[in-house]
Specification:
- This protein is mainly alpha-helical.
- It is 56% helix and 10% strand.
- It has one domain (37-138): Arc Repressor Mutant, subunit A (Orthogonal Bundle), CATH 1.10.10.10.
- Strands 1-3-2 form a 3-stranded antiparallel sheet.
Amino acid sequence: MDENGGSGTDDRPSDEWLFDVFSRRCPSRGTLEHVTGRWGSLTLGALHEGSLRFNALRRRVDGVSEKMLSQTLHALERDGLVHREAQPTNPPRVDYELTPLGQQVAEQLLGLIHLVEGRMAEVMVARDRYDEAHAVREG
């Protein structure tokens, strides 16, 4: 058995695997990166509202480039959090929606997002206090 509880010969998880995000070799680190990165968390949050086409999703996640959104969606799809549905129409229509796992992850993220949004007044005060204290020392 390797440090993650697997045999070391197969990269696929089994029921015997133990995942530990604090372990350097744990594959959950990559997924956590995809989920908690700026574009991943915003994409999951936007898709929690419902299925969206690529351009509508890009407009909802203000500031994301086409390339970054595409990379983010590929990573989230690979992790099993997003489902891509391509319609055989002309022009092609592609819709993105959360999988059941993606829905659970998005709900947890939205709890954190709402907590941060609701406490931003305190954060802004703390930032001002910090900036004032450090400007005195540096100036």
